Structures are given as C-alpha cells and as structure tokens.
Amino acid sequence: MHVRIFLISLGLALLAAPLSAQLGLPQVELPQTGTVLDPVTGSVLDPVLDVSEDVTRKAARLADLRERRLDRLVRRNRDIVELDAAGAPARKGTLLLIDASAQDIATAQSLGFEANGIERIDGLELVVTRLALPEGLTLAGAQRKLQEVLPQAEISADNLHFRSGPAAALPLMAQPVARSIATPVGIIDGAPGDGIAVQAVRGFADGAPYPSNHGSAVTSLLRYAGVRTIRVADVYGTDKAGGNALAIARALGWLVESGSKVINISLVGPQNALLQRAVASAQAKGVVVVAAVGNDGPASPPSYPASYSKVLAVTAVDRHDRALIEAGRALHLDYAAPGADIFARNAKGGRMKLRGTSFATPLVAARLAATLDHGGGWRQRLDAEARDLGKKGPDGVYGRGLLCGACRPSR
C-alpha cells in the first residue's frame, strides 16, 4: 500500500502562485516583505508524491526546483540581485573586503573599485569595506578580478540568505510548555508581530523592523519552549535584498554585545567569507549558533551557516519522527527536532501550521539554552537528552538524535 506525503516545493510556488497563495493564506491579509524574498521564502505543499518513489529521483527533483527558483529570482530582480563567482545570488554591484589593509583598499581603487564605506561591526571586531564595482563588470567578473590581484585578501559578495519553511494560518495557539529558561537567546530573521513578547527588536535592513510570519513563528516557538529573554534582529524588513551577509554579520554583532548566549538562525545561503568570520568571532566569545539545514533536499549544496564549524546544524522530523523528505544538508549534522504538524503564531497573532527545518531549529535552541542554565557541559547534557533515531548512534539523517520531541506545539 502506498503511503502518501506532502512534499514542500519552493520552486513550483514560484511558477504559478502569488505570495498569499504560496503561504497558504489566500484569505488572510499579511504584512508584506521585500519583493525579492517573498517568492523565495513563500511555499506551498507540492502535489503529493508516493513515498515509494525512488529517493534519488526525489532528491534530483528538489535540486532541480532549487535551480529554477534561483534562476527565476535573478531574472525577475536584475536591478537588485546578481550571481557571484560561485553562482550564488547576492546584492548587485557590491563586494566586501574583510579586515582589509589600506594598501588593499588602494589597490582596489586603482582598478576602478570605489570604497563606499568602511565600518567596524561592533561585538565582532570585524572591519568591512564596501566596494562598488567598476562600470561594465559583472559581480562574478569583478570578484574574480579582485581576488586575482589580491590573492591573500578576504573578499566576499553580499550573498542573500533565505528562510527555510512555509506556514498556513489557523486560529489560536497552544500555551507554552515552560517558562523557566533564563539563558538569553537571540534570533536573526524577520521581526515578530506586536503580540509576541521579546526584550528587544532591532532592524538591519531597509524598512526594518517589519513584522513577518517567519520571524513571528520562530520567535513564538522559542517562547513556547520556555525561553524568557529573546532579542530579535530583523535582517529583512522591506529590503528587496534583505537577508544579505552584511546585515546578518551586523545582527550577530548586536546580539553578542547584547548578551545573547545562543543565537538562532533559521536561514540558509551559500558559503560566505564575511559570515564565516562573523560566526567564528561570535563563537570565540562563547556564543553558540544554531542553524537550520534548509529545505532544498539531500541533493542540494551544503547549507550555511549550518555548515560552518561548530555551528549546531538542525534537521526536522514529522509527527511520526521520520526525517522530512525535503530537509537539506550540511557538512555536519547535530540534532533533529519536530518540524512538521506543529503550530506557532504569525505576524497577525493567529496560529500557523508549520513545516520546515526553520521551525525545528528554535526548539533545539531552547533545549540548548536550558542546558546552559546549569553551566558548562551542554553537549553532554544534550546528547543525554536526545533520543536516538535511525541507525544506532550519530548519523547523517538525524544527527545525534531527536530533541524536544515532548514539547511539540500541537493542537
């Protein structure tokens, strides 16, 4: 007998549906976000697939949808978005030099690059120089040219990062399971709605802070799981190129300075030199970053920031504790948590039914924060709490086991 499941498809949503339909909310008026990110982060449930279908074919299909989605993103937003030298979408016309010397900047200027600003990212001890490209050069071409002339310099495109999970509206929401986690947690996402209590919200994009369904869901899941002190950095706002690496780095710096000990990033993007340095700097200050592996399937490229060293990479399971078929991958995998048939608040305060690795991530972040309430040794405590799934011991599907299975927000 064939068991049928719903497969989340970001790509098919792009081809036929407006944002409200993509989010599964055709009758609910929602706050809007930047027009570049809307078609990328909104999703619908794809036509059902037979679970007996060959796994390789499913993975290939998800990979193809990802490529179509990114291609459509660039073609429809040529004034804002361009592919970098690695073929990943980034803010058009901008390169970033990290901790560049005066000589490096002078060399770039001699090649026709214009220094549009030099800033120190508070909390991370990073200095970033924004360069405008010489006329006539593509982003990829300019990046290759500058790297050839400055082989030792850290040069980065301002890559875009995307939220990793859709939601559909329902009335009400379950009550929190606990109110006892004292360790402060930061979130890098969109802003939560006014009805979700947090200690602080700060914007790092045009129009930010601006309420978003995704940010509201992630924030309310942390609150539901018992975290008392939450700060949210909105890296999207209404910015057409929101979720870029520079915005995320700035957000990390603010959250570190504000005292967050755990930082939840339910976003995915390509490897990026600036963001890698920013994450490492936060970790050096004792902060633990928890990130989603994304929803582009097991054949997708490794997702970042989940793949950066020592970041807790999180995947998701359904209500039967089966790995989500659309779960992406990282260079390592730490834990799984519920990521389907769970509920949280949207930007209007209503309840949403959720699916995606985005929503498993705050549940893991909450359990991590709870272990930090008791001092060091958090890895041992989490491992002791995690329930082994799949092959015995750590594996590439469920990581080191399932966390927060008992705190699944349900009806």
Task: Give the topology, please.
Blueprint: E1 4-5, E2 8-9, H1 10-16, H2 19-22, H3 38-41, E3 44-45, E4 49-50, H4 55-76, E5 81-83, E6 89-98, H5 102-110, E7 114-121, E8 126-132, H6 139-149, E9 154-159, E10 162-163, E11 167-170, E12 185-189, E13 200-203, H7 213-224, E14 230-234, H8 245-257, E15 262-265, E16 267-268, H9 273-284, E17 288-292, E18 312-317, E19 335-338, E20 340-345, E21 351-355, H10 357-372, H11 378-385
Parallel strand pairs: 12-14, 12-15, 13-14, 15-17, 17-18, 18-19
Antiparallel strand pairs: 1-4, 2-3, 5-6, 6-8, 6-9, 7-8, 10-16, 11-21, 20-21
Helix pairs in contact: 1-4, 7-10, 8-9, 10-11
Roughly what is the average pLDDT, rounded to an integer? 84
Major beta sheet, strand line-up: 13-14-12-15-17-18-19
Largest sheet: 7 strands, parallel
Question: What is the CATH homologous superfamily assignment of the largest domain?
Answer: Peptidase S8/S53 domain
Q: Would you identify the regions where 5 or more consecutive residues have pLDDT less than 50?
A: 1-52, 167-178
Give the helix level as a range of percent: 25-40%
β-strand number: 21
Looking at the overall shape, the CATH architecture of the largest domain is 3-Layer(aba) Sandwich
